[in-house]
Write a structure and sequence with these properties.
Distance between the termini: 18 Å
Number of strands: 11
Helix content: 25-40%
Structural class: alpha+beta
Strand order of the largest sheet: 4-7-2-1-11
Order of helices and strands: HEEEEEEEEEEEH
Strand content: 35-45%
Largest sheet: 5 strands, mixed
Number of helices: 2
Shape: elongated
Length: about 170
Amino acid sequence: NWAILLELAKPLFVAICALFLARIFDQRLKLLAFFAHANAIGDSKNATTIHTHSVVVRNEGSKPAKNVRLSHRQLPDHSVYPDVNYVLQDMPGGGKDMIFSELVPKQQVTISYLYHPPLTFDQVHTGIPSDEGFAREINVVPSAQLSIGHSMVRRALIGIGVVTSLYFL
C-alpha cells in the first residue's frame, strides 16, 4: 500500500532535509590558500636570478579563523597585503611561523616572497594550519571568466534541471 509507504518515508525525508539545511547554515571554517605564481627573473647583465611567488590566504567560511600560521622552513624577504598585524615566531627546528591572530569571514591576505637561488618556492612553506585545522591549498590556473549573461543562463538551466528532477521524483 503506497499510503503506508509514504507515511513511513515522511520522517526520513524530513530528517534528510534537516541535515541538509543544517549543513548549509552551519557556521564552518573554510580556510583556503592559493599559490598564485612561482617565477624566476634573470638579469643577463649581472648574471643574477631572483625568485618570487605569492600565497593568498582566504577565510571563505562563515566564522573567524583563529591563529592562522604560515609555517616556513626559511622565511625570505616578504610583504603582506593588506597591511594587517602578524607575529613572527621562531620554531625549535629552525623555521619561522607567520601568525595572524584572526582572519574574519571573507578576509584575505596576500603574502609575496622575494629570494635568491638556490632557494626555490617549494623550500619555503611547510603548511598553513589554524586552530580549526589546515587550510586547503589550491594551485591557481588562469582561466577565462564567463560573462554575466552566460552565468545567468547556466544557473537558469541548472535550476530547470533541479526542478524537473524533483518533479519526476
